[in-house]
Amino acid sequence: MAATKSKTKTLTKWDEDVAETDLTMDVLNSMEQGILVWSDGGVCRMHNQRILSMLELSPEAIYPGITRTEFLEAAAARGELDKEAVETAQARFARRAPFSFDRKMPSGRTVTTNARPLRGGGFVVTFSDVSETRRNADDLAKAKAKAEAAELKALKTLAAEQAWRNEARLLSDLDEWLQCCKSLSELFEILGSFMTKLLPETEGELYIYSNSRDVLDGACAWSGSQMHDHILPDSCWALRRGRHYHYNAQEVSFSCDHVKEQSGVQDVENYLCIPIIAHGDTVGLMHVRFSSETSANMNESARRFALQCGEHISLAIANVRLRDELHDQSTRDPLTGLYNRRFFLEALRNELSMAERRKQKVGILSFDADKFKAFNDNHGHDAGDMVLRAIGEKLNELFCNGQIPCRFGGEEFTVLLPGTDLEQAKVAGEALRAAVEEVKIRYGSGLLPRVTISVGVSSYPEHGILPQDLLNAADGALYAAKDAGRNCVRVASNSHEE
Q1: pLDDT tens digits for 368-406?
Q2: CATH code of the domain in which 230 resides
Q3: Does residue 69 contact residue 44 with C-beta atoms inside 8 Å?
Q4: Which H or E run contains 102?
Q5: In terms of pLDDT, which residue wins out, 229 or 297?
Q6: Could you tell me the residue range of the domain that residue 379 belongs to?
Q7: Helix (H, G, I), strand (E, B) or coil at 382
Q8: What pTM value is reported for the model?
């Protein structure tokens, strides 16, 4: 009876173990993950049913008792793992270190394997389908990369827009200053200062053709560049080729002679020569050297901006020249090149106004060619024009320091002498008379008869304070010189006080 009782207890314990095992398998089979338990010796002790669908296996491919080596080699044969991955997994199992890795299934799914050592020996391995998670992560990474690229593009576009606006503002400022220039010399002075702000990473010079067009004269320089006094037109590839020329030592390029000969410039690697064109005519050259420390992108941007600057400078020079030409046409006599009556009267009024404020003297010379009508009758108007041109050349030669010589009309001339008293004006008139008397005028195959002039002198304020008073006084002195036998100088006798 006691034996029967003991047997009943044993059967009850066995039933409990079986029940516990069934419960464990029920729990494992209810998991979303595939689960595999390895013994300490690398033999499968148990696995759930989920592992079959997770690893796309048939029931005979995994079973309790299969070794870990057989399981891993079968996975490698199916292409889920490579040889290196198998060896790495075995080494980590041997070290009893937790690890994880991904395996690519034949269907394209991604299954991650996580192995964790058990306290009593062996390993529990879980298999999770992370295909969607990986896709989402990839999509997120791609979206992030796309967003970053879009942001970078937007920043670059914004930077380019800002740079363009800054360049446009600088060019607008340059145009405003250049449009206010009264002369080319003033324009060159402004450019020399402005270019250091327009192209701060550069040095350069501006050259303008001389009147003879055989050389280009140095007009201005910036950033401490050493400017030539003159360069020859054929010393620059840009002028010879008729378009801008970019020299880059890293490419097939040939240096201009004017750069080779420039003092203080050694081993120039990057420069730009830009022809300055006004109204279709090449009037000069802008030479720009770029810093070797500047990046290639900045050099490219600076070259583009330098070309824009060249266009604006060309337009400004063209405008100043056109304004000068129009001004000359309205203020100068076309035959002699001297100022005309209109300009002279305006200058005289301005000079008298300043002389009154500054308590200064002003001298007036009035003269004409002696017996000019008879000269025209005897030798012709062409010869008479040559005489007038010769007198004009002599006037420009003698009075070039602020004095204003003028052809008043016909053979009549006047000279405004600012800051000159009566005695000094008389000396200037005598020097003029003697100089004209020495002039030799060739006409055809011979020389024309000697030309003489009679000069009348007046002075502010001795002979008046109004322009007409001074001119009348000088004309009266001129007639007195005629009455005295011509070819002489006379001073106005009637004073303003009288």
Answers
A1: 999 888 888 888 888 888 899 999 999 999 998 889 999
A2: 3.30.450.40
A3: no
A4: strand 99-104
A5: 229
A6: 341-491
A7: helix
A8: 0.55
